[in-house]
Amino acid sequence: ETIINQIAAGEVIERPASVIKELVENAIDAAATRIEIVTAGGGKTLMRVSDNGCGIPVDELTLAVSRHCTSKLTDDVHDIRALGFRGEALPSIGSVAKLTLKSRPEGADSGFEVSVSGGHMEGPRPTALNRGTIVEVRDLFFATPARLKFMKTERAEALAITEVVKRIAIAFPHIRFSLAGTDRTPLELPATGTGAEATLERIAQILGKDFADNALVLDAEREGVRLSGFAGIPSFNRGNALHQFAYVNGRPVRDKQILGALRGAYADVIARDRHPVAVLFLTLDPALVDVNVHPAKADVRFRDPGLVRGLIVGAIKQALSHSGI
Ligand code: ADP
Ligand code: MG
Fold this sequence. Notes:
CATH class of the largest domain: Alpha Beta
Protein name: DNA mismatch repair protein MutL
Low-confidence stretches: 77-81
Number of strands: 17
Radius of gyration: 20 Å
Mean pLDDT: 91
Helix content: 25-40%
Keywords: DNA damage, DNA repair, Endonuclease, Hydrolase, Nuclease
Number of domains: 2
GO molecular function: endonuclease activity
Family: Belongs to the DNA mismatch repair MutL/HexB family.
Distance between the termini: 58 Å
Shape: elongated
Number of helices: 10
Strand content: 25-35%
Organism: Daeguia caeni
Bound molecules: adenosine-5'-diphosphate, magnesium ion
Order of helices and strands: HHEEHHEEEEHHEEHHEEEEEHEEEEH
């Protein structure tokens, strides 16, 4: 069982940032409105994610760290409202690191915790806690020394964690996020609300007011596929592609086709070694896209990739020409 979990961990957990992604997504699935993240050593020594979500009842704590136990599956595979649904993340993390899961659901008189280290579980035992869940991960990959060697510098891992948090935070402006330990100054993202205005305000927190105030507004639709979002004016470009954010049906994705279309749209107005800044939200019938190509869920498979590319390139080129660029 531990070995199977370690193999699964190889798929889902590549580096500290993948742990942060899984834990933050769990907090979002639990309807949290505040998510606090603390890290040390680029996440290699410590990652702690606290939320004020629905919590886990004591009789489900053991299940939560067991393989393929998820509280989120519906009958329809396309109808995946929750971000996570494989029941793999917590057991995977517990098989390669020291994991402590503390939780207290609404109405419970106390919190409980379980801990898993290298696949060995202890608990549940009572613990003092407010409503919500705290997941603490220490010494990532201590149980798999070969994997440990592949981690990058603290600085690089910390940067990847920051990127993951920003990427998710843009899609959930009604949630307050904080991230400490990855940089000298912690990242503080107060909740901005719901709707387009709130999204733009969250984008301003992350990409700067300068981007948000001057960005081209995208809003286009083709054959049921809708694109909305914001694209930087050509002079607002960057030396790397870290400032490109794409979402499919509200989930962050890092998809080559979408990013390729973005690059294509700016090919004539931005130098080849520079990268446009943009936030793209695609909305379409879930039956027309597979977001589960890989457990890490970064790539997507569109039924009609050409349509999506045409939509993105067309909308951005049109916005550029309307603004006289
Ligand atoms: P999945 O998210 O795919 O269901 P995980 O291994 O990430 O699998 O989590 C296992 C289960 O633990 C979830 O289905 C959920 O019931 C519970 N859980 C995990 N994290 C939280 C959290 N922060 N708040 C409430 N429940 C949680
Ligand atoms: Mg999950």
